[in-house]
Amino acid sequence: YPLLYYCSGTEVLVHNLETHTTTFSLAAHKDKVNCVKHTNEYVFSGGCDKKLYVWKNHQQHQEIILSGPLIEIGVGKEVCVITSDGIVRMYSLGERLELETELCFSSNLQECSAQITYCSTSFLALGGADAKIHLFAKLEGEWVFLNSLEGHSRTVRTLEFQELNQELFLASGGQEGQIRIWKFFKEIPESSLDSQGLYPLDQVSMSCKLEAVLMEHSNCVSCLKWMGNSIVSSSHDCSVLVWTEDSRSGTWVPKASMGQIGNSKYMFFGVVCSDNLIMAYSYSGGFYRWNFEEEEWKSQIAPTGHFGGITGLVANSQFVVTSSLDQTTRLWSEARGVWREVSRPMIHGYDLNTIALFKNTLVSGGDEKVLRLFDFSKVSADVLRNECGVELEGVTAGAGQALGLMTKATDQDIDISNYKITEDVLTNHTLWPEACKLYGHGYEVVTLATGYTYPVLASASKAQSAEYAKVFLWNLEQKSQLQTLEFHNLTVTDLAFSHDDKFLLSVSRDRNWCLYEFLDGEYRVSKSSQAHARMIYCCAWNPEDKIFSTGSRDKRLKLWNKQGECLDTLILSAGVTACAWITPQIIAVGLENGVVSVREIHAKSELTRYSHGKCVNKLAWNGEYLFSASADHTL
User: Fold this and answer.
1) Among the four 68, 415, 576, 610, which has the fewest Cβ within 10 Å?
2) Following DSSP, what letter does each residue of 120-151 receive, concatenated?
3) Torsion on CA atoms 421, 239, 125, 203, rounded to nearest 10
4) Alpha carbon 289 to chain centroid distance?
5) How many Cα atoms sit within 13 Å of 447 on the Cβ side?
6) Which of the 8 DSSP states describes residue 59?
7) CA distances, 478 to each of 372, 395, 468, 482 (Å)
8) How many CA atoms lie within 13 A of 422 on its CB side?
C-alpha cells in the first residue's frame, strides 16, 4: 500500500493506507498549503506563503522563496512550479533544485502542467485560463515553444501525458466538463488532406491531433489520471469515472462510475490512483477510496478529518468530540487500535465555535447565536458497539435538512453493520437528532461548559460591553434558563466548572477572572482578580479542585487558590491559549505558536513537548490520553 501525502491547513500529512494511521507531519509553511507532489526520494509542497519546500526522508531539505502563492507543482524529469502571478518556473531535479528558466504568462494564468520524456525529448504541456494547451520541448537545454492546442471552451483544469504502445497521448480536462485526448505523431503529413486538424510541431518533427472527446461529466473536470491504458477522472458533479477504449469501435466509454448524488458541497476536487486503488477528495474535506475487488470497484475506509480550524474539544473515557470552523462536529474513538472518526453528530450551516457534552447530550454554539442540544443517535451507538466495543444507548437516528440548519429525528431503521464507515456513511447516517434550541444570546456564542454531576450548562457570547458579557446558566434536563451571571465587561473567553460543581470559573478579554460559588440554590460571585496584563484565553481546575489555572496572551500561566491568591506563575515562550490538568502536579499548556508543553508545576520543569502547525485552541485529558486541537485542522 502506498503512503498518501495530502495538504491539511499549513501542514502536509503522511497517511499509511494499510495501517490507517497518519505517520508523519511535514510542518514548515506559515500559510495554507495548496499543492503537494512526490517522487521516490523527495516530497515537494507549496502554499500561500510563497514558498516551495523540498522534503527528504520527511525532513526539510530545501526552501525556495517565490514571487507569489503556488497553485501547481508538476514533477517529471524537471520540476514545474506555477505561481498565481502568472510565472511558470522550471527547476532541474538533482540533489538541490536549480532554476533553469521562467515562462511569463502574466494575466493569462496557467493552472496545470504535465511532463514526459518521449523519444529522448522532454515535453511540457501547460493549460489555464485561455482554454488552450501550450506545448514546449526541451531542445539543447532550452524550453522551446511548439504550438498551442485549441478545443476547450473554458479553463483547462488538468493535463496528463501517457505513452501507450510506443505512441504518445495527452489527456486534458476542462471547466466545461469535457475530456479531450490528443495523439502525437512522429511525422508531419505532406498532403493537405491528411493534415486537417493537425497541429504541427516542427521543431521536433512531430504533429498532434485530437483523438477523442469524452462527454459524460455534467460539470467541471477537476482532475484526471492515466491508469495503464485507462483514464480516471473526477468532476464537480461528484462523480469519478474510469474510461477505457472499446477495442472494436475505438470509442472511449466509462467502464465504472463512483461517487454520489449530492449538492456542491460534495464535488470532487481531485483524484489519485494506482493499479487497483482510486482515491478522490471532496469539497467537504473527505476522502473517498475504492479498491478493485472481485471485478468491481468497492468503497473502502479512507482517512477523514476537519478541513477548518478546530474550535471545540470534549473528551471522556470512551470517545472524543470536536467542532470546527468547517461547520461540523465529529466523534472519534479507538477502533481496532486506531483512533478514527466513527460518527458525525452535526453538519451545520454556520461556523461552530464551541461544544460541550453532558452524559449523552451534545451542545453546540456558533455564529448563529443559538445553542443547539443533540441526543446520542442509535446509529452512532451501533457504530461504537461494532467498531470500538463501546456500549452506549442511543435514541432515534437523525436526518439533515435543507441548508444544513438543523437535524430532525427520523424513524428510518438502518442496520449499520452492513456498512463500512466511509465518508458517505458518516455524512448521511450518523447525524444526531436535535432535541431543542436555547435562545438568549445577542451575539455569537464563543464558549460553553457543563457540570460534572449536575445538569447545568454555562454559556457566553461575544461582547463589547457588560450588557452582553453575561454568563447564562441553563438546566439541561428542563431545557430552561436558570440565571445570568454579571461581572465581566468584555467577551468571556472560557468557562470551567469544578469537579463537584460547587464553583464556576470564568475568564475574559477584560483580563479578569471571576469565581462563582453555588450558595442557596444559585451561583454568586465569590472572588475575582485582574490577573494578567493581556486578555485571558483559558482556565482549568486541577483534579483535586484545590487550585485553578489561567492562561493569557501575556505568556503567563498563573496558578490560584479559591481564596484568590496567586500561588505561582509559569512564563512560556508564547501566549497561553489552552490548558488541561493531567495530575494535581502536572499540567499541559497549549501556546499561540502551536507548541504543547507538559510541565511539572512545582519543579517548573518541562516533561515533554510537541508542536502543531498553528495555534493550539483546546486541550483535554481523558485519564489515559492527552488530546490537543489546533487551528491547523488537526486533532
Assistant:
1) 415
2) TEEEEEEEETTSEEEEEEEETTEEEEEEEEE-
3) 130
4) 17
5) 26
6) E
7) 14, 18, 24, 10
8) 18
How many other CB atoms sit within 10 Å of the CB of residue 111? 18
Q: Is the pLDDT of residue 402 over 50?
A: no
What's 586-616 look like in SS3? EEEEEECCCEEEEEECCCCEEEEEEECCCCE
CB 159 within 8 A of CB 125: yes
Dihedral of the CA atoms 599, 601, 604, 609 (nearest 10)?
0
Least confident range from 135-149, 211-225, 420-434: namely 420-434
Give all strands (DSSP E) within 283-370, no chain letters: 287-293, 296-300, 310-315, 320-324, 328-335, 338-347, 352-358, 361-366
Q: How far apart are CA 151 and CA 238, in angstroms?
A: 24
Give whole-number Cα distances, 538 to 191, 589, 614, in Å.
79, 10, 17
Starting at the edge strand found earlier in the chain, the sheet holding 87-92 runs 70-75, 78-83, 87-92, 98-104
Residue 195's contacts (CB-CB under 8 Å, 6 or more residues apart) are 188, 189, 207
Residue 183 CA to residue 171 CA, distance in Å, equals 9
Q: Which three cell numbers stand for residue 412?
A: 428510518
Residue tagged 436555547 (cell numbers): 438
Q: Is residue 396 classed as helix, strand or coil in its secondary structure?
A: coil
What grid cell was written down for 215? 462527454
Whole-number Å distance between alpha carbons of 456 and 476: 6
Contact criterion met (CB below 8 Å) for 434 and 398: yes
51 DSSP β-pair partners: 65
Question: Which residues, in sequence order, are bridge partners of residue 2?
Answer: none
What is the residue whose three cell numbers read 447564562? Answer: 472
Distance (Å, whole) CA 226 – CA 483: 64
Gyration radius of the chain's alpha carbons: 28
Give the tens place of pLDDT for each residue, 98-109: 999 999 988 888
C-alpha to C-alpha distance for 599 and 249, rounded to whole angstroms: 71
Q: Model confidence at 517, in pLDDT bands (50, 70, 90)?
A: very high
What does 226-237 look like in DSSP terms, one character per residue?
A: EETTEEEEEETT
Most confident among 382-391, 406-415, 443-452 (mean pLDDT) = 443-452
Q: Exposed, middle or buried, 476 (CB in 10 Å: 0-12/13-18/19+)?
A: buried
Cβ atoms of 306 and 342 within 8 Å: the answer is no
DSSP string, 450-519: E-SSS-EEEEEE--SSTTT-PEEEEETTTTEEEEEE---SS-EEEEEE-TTSSEEEEEETTSEEEEEEEE
Distance of alpha carbon 473 from alpha carbon 497, whole angstroms: 12
CA-to-CA distance for 219 and 192, rounded, in angstroms? 36
Alpha helices (H) along 189-245: none
Three-state DSSP class for residue 106: coil
Could you tell me if 581 and 591 are in contact, meaning their C-beta atoms sit under 8 angstroms apart?
no
Do the Cβ atoms of 178 and 152 come closer than 8 Å? Answer: yes
DSSP state of 313: E
Q: Which three cell numbers stand for residue 543?
A: 483534579
Q: How far is CA 539 from CA 510, 549, 550, 568, 570, in A?
A: 14, 5, 4, 15, 14
